[in-house]
Write a structure and sequence with these properties.
Number of strands: 24
CATH architecture: Sandwich
CATH class: Mainly Beta
Shape: globular
Distance between the termini: 48 Å
CATH superfamily: Jelly Rolls
Structural class: mainly beta
Number of helices: 1
Strand content: over 45%
Helix content: under 10%
Largest sheet: 9 strands, antiparallel
Length: about 290
């Protein structure tokens, strides 16, 4: 059974067990992209099999031990998504996985159906490329931990975006819902949001790119997710006083693992204004360990 709406408020896609968010390709109504958010109590463990998908275990808050087919990886993690870049673990398809946390925490499992079985690996925090994108009120930070050119996967592409309160992110609106060689990738995408501060909120927009396409204008709060099978997506707007985080999980059928986008023709001009404006002085929120300011 598929979800009734692309906007999934916090708790509405829980599995009734340890996953506070559980999005499978079947539930999303597409072929590749998955996302789970796992909450572990102190001293607890969780076991799963990766099946026909590759996965990245990404700490959102806390650290954990990940064992993949008997091979251990220790993830230091972080206090929160607003506190720093994190290390992570790559899990191949057809693997047996156990997660355990001495102190407890919250962990994203970003997944994609795939064909190749790559080796299990550790991704160190110091190797995560941190990008500052846009300027002025469009300034945001992108942690490219599993971007196409940063970390090898078969189909999975995943990045984190952190936006200062009051700024517009995922702007100008763009799309990647059809294959155009050298211009646009076909990628299913999940946005998972965390908002800093009590009663924090933001807004997210998806505009149809075709007749009957995805149309969303959602007030997003901590723990919400939005499914984007198609359409021009953006902006994601962080309310003043509330920094916004979102995790992007993408995968698709293209012959190359690449993130190619087309900007909405009505708004593409905004990129040309960025060189004239300063970067938001609140950025970067943080750098990867070992990077110089």
């Amino acid at each position: 059974m598929t979800f009734a709406t692309p906007h999934l408020p916090a708790g509405s896609a829980a599995d009734g067990g340890p996953y506070t968010l559980d999005i499978s390709p079947e539930q999303a109504g597409w072929e590749y992209s998955s996302l789970r958010v796992l909450v572990l109590a102190p001293g607890s463990t969780h076991t799963f099999t990766s099946g026909d998908s590759e996965w990245i275990v990404l700490p959102l808050a806390g650290g954990c031990a990940v064992t993949v087919d008997g091979r251990p990886f220790e993830l230091e993690g972080r206090k929160s998504v607003f506190a720093g870049v994190t290390d992570f673990a790559y899990v191949p398809r057809s693997a047996h996985v156990t997660l355990g946390s001495r102190t407890g925490g919250r962990f994203a499992l970003a997944g994609a159906r795939c064909e190749r079985r790559l080796p299990a690996r550790y991704g160190p925090a110091e190797a995560v490329p941190v990008e500052l994108r846009g300027t002025g009120s469009c300034s945001r930070q992108v942690n490219n931990f599993a971007a196409a050119g940063a970390f090898e996967c078969d189909r999975l592409i995943a990045v984190e975006v952190v936006t200062p309160g009051g700024n517009w992110s995922s702007y100008p609106p763009h799309k990647h819902d059809e294959h155009r060689a050298g211009q646009e990738s076909e990628l299913e995408e999940i946005y998972y949001f965390e908002i800093d501060g009590d009663a924090g909120l933001g807004y997210h927009r998806v505009t149809p790119s075709r007749r009957g396409g995805t149309d969303v204008l959602a007030e997003v709060r901590d723990g919400d997710a939005v499914l984007i099978p198609d359409g021009w997506h953006g902006p994601s707007i962080a309310a003043p006083g509330h920094d916004m985080y979102y995790l992007n999980v993408m995968a698709g059928p293209g012959p190359e693992r690449e993130w190619l986008i087309r900007d909405h023709p009505d708004h593409a001009w905004i990129r040309a204004t960025w060189p004239e404006q300063p970067l938001d002085p609140r950025l970067p929120f943080y750098l990867a360990p070992g990077e110089m300011t």
